[in-house]
Specification:
GO terms for molecular function: homogentisate 1,2-dioxygenase activity; metal ion binding. Keywords: Dioxygenase, Iron, Metal-binding, Oxidoreductase, Phenylalanine catabolism, Tyrosine catabolism. InterPro entries: HgmA_C (IPR046451), HgmA_N (IPR046452), Homogentis_dOase (IPR005708), RmlC-like_jellyroll (IPR014710), RmlC_Cupin_sf (IPR011051). With 449 residues, the chain is mostly beta strands. It has a domain of 149 residues: Jelly Rolls, CATH 2.60.120. The chain is 6% helix and 34% strand. The protein is built from four helices and 28 strands. It has a seven-stranded antiparallel sheet with strand order 20-13-10-15-8-7-28. A six-stranded antiparallel sheet has the order 6-25-24-27-22-21, with no helix packed on it. Strands 2-19-4-3 form a four-stranded antiparallel sheet, with no helix packed on it. The longest helix has 9 residues. The relative contact order is 0.19.
Length: 449
């Protein structure tokens, strides 16, 4: 069985189950019985509802959580745009400010940054859509080296799917605390407030911010009821709160990719109890149960989907989160790496650790990335092709010590100015190094000598 992160010391407690209804209280009797909003909530708390969908959403889609807190979330000063120009410039998904290009792109590993905290270490690489219309997604890199102080942050634009590549995140959310390490992922839903501290120093990783809908487990169809990511392996925090009589806090809001801040005279982390199905959660990628071909041909990468965010068109996703963990290949008579292809979906890949088996040339490294946009042709580099074409086809373990992933989207994504130029990580000869060396092997039997 793959090594999981659950064996590492974790100071926090969790509830298990994906999309489950959870209830938790840090003080006995803080959850009211029989009513969500009684005339007087227990222990002098305030009842507050956190809604992730419209009130009238179908029951099976409705996401909401009732929280019981010391002071309501509304008790803060007015928000003021903070460093609006520079933040909006590096985060915007406005179409006219993005570069929509058909070229295959690959980035060298992104830098660590010890000078900034979580809020100021977010950079948009690519994206599509409009958070004001709740359409599309944004793909970000984060790099930070400083703890957030007496501060909290939330995104009104979408759900954050966080994929750590380096370092440990200690995430204090309103609904409880989460420790997050490489080889784990975490989703912070739209609107949930949190702060990030760094117990082991600088951190770096990837984020897919979902403007449209919420992440869910993919349907398994003929696979049956098991395999891929099992619901029982997802973890949600239990209630934990700070009790501070008077404390000055700064609250940051990401609102239409602009950063605002407001002051408040109490901690945002004062929820004593909560119940519902709208909450942060984490998942250990080592628990993913891989399936694959045991006869011939290389199956579609959709069999590696951990989480999906469906669009309005059945079978098409705003975002799929797909991983390529250690696994066995046993298919007979088959070219085992991914085939060469042109895809109507955009594919953004990142590497957490190790080497990706379809890119053996060394240009795709941990903390790096690649983007193959809508209908941009791609596939194994020349070295991977030659090796796989001539390999002895015996059962083979691939990806030992490696974890690659993909954010796949039906949207054509534009690349930000930061991602294309400012970060200075784009490999200018990616295409030339990967596919120009491919040799002609075809011998035309109809051609006369």
């Amino acid at each position: 069985m793959p090594v999981t992160n659950f064996s590492h010391p974790d100071p926090y407690k969790y509830q298990t189950g994906f999309d489950s209804y959870h209830e938790t209280e840090a003080v006995e009797g803080a959850l009211p019985i029989g009513q969500n909003s009684p005339q007087k909530a227990p222990h002098g708390l305030y009842a507050e509802k956190l809604s992730g969908t419209a009130f009238t959403a179908p029951r099976h889609e409705n996401k909401q959580t009732w929280v019981y807190r010391i002071i309501p979330a509304a008790a803060h000063e007015n928000f003021i745009a903070e460093d609006a120009d520079s933040y909006h410039t590096r985060m915007t998904t406005e179409t006219q400010k993005l570069h929509h290009i058909p070229n295959q792109l690959r980035w060298n590993p992104f830098d660590l940054d010890e000078k900034v905290d979580w809020v100021h270490g977010l950079h948009l690489i690519a994206g599509s859509g409009d958070p004001t219309q709740k359409q599309g997604l944004g793909i970000l890199m984060y790099a930070a080296g400083k703890d957030m102080g007496k501060e909290a942050f939330y995104s009104a634009d979408g759900d954050f799917l966080i994929v750590p590549q380096h370092g440990v995140l200690d995430i204090q959310t309103e609904l409880g605390r989460i420790t997050l390490r490489p080889n784990e992922i975490c989703v912070i839903p739209r609107g949930v407030r949190y702060r990030v501290t760094l117990p082991d120093g600088p951190v770096r990783g990837y984020i897919c911010e979902l403007y449209q809908g919420h992440y869910q487990l993919p349907e398994l169809g003929p696979i049956g009821s098991n395999c891929l990511a099992n619901a029982r392996d997802f973890q949600a925090p239990v209630a934990a709160f700070d009790d501070e009589e008077e404390s000055e806090y700064k609250l940051y809001s990401k609102f239409n990719n602009t950063l605002f801040s407001a002051r408040q005279n109490h901690t945002p982390f004062d929820i004593v109890a909560w119940h519902g199905n709208y909450y942060p959660f984490k998942y250990d990628l080592g628990r993913f149960n891989v399936i694959g071909s045991i006869s011939f041909d290389h199956p579609d990468p959709s069999i590696f989907t951990v989480l999906t965010a469906p669009s309005d068109h059945v079978g098409t996703a705003v975002a799929d989160f797909v991983i390529f963990p250690p696994r066995w290949l046993v298919a007979e008579g088959t070219f085992r790496p991914p085939w060469y292809h042109r895809n109507t979906m955009s594919e953004f890949m990142g590497l957490i650790s190790g080497d990706y088996d379809a890119k053996v040339g060394g240009g795709f490294k941990p903390a790096g990335a690649s983007l193959h946009n809508v209908m941009s042709a791609h596939g194994p580099d020349s070295g991977a092709f030659e090796g796989a074409s001539n390999a002895e086809l015996k059962p083979q373990k691939v990806g030992d010590g490696s974890m690659a992933f993909m954010f796949e989207s039906a949207h054509m994504v534009g690349v930000s100015e930061w991602g294309l130029k400012t970060c200075q990580k784009v490999q200018p000869e990616y295409n030339e190094h990967s596919w120009k060396p491919l040799k002609r092997h075809f011998v035309n039997p109809n051609k006369k000598a």
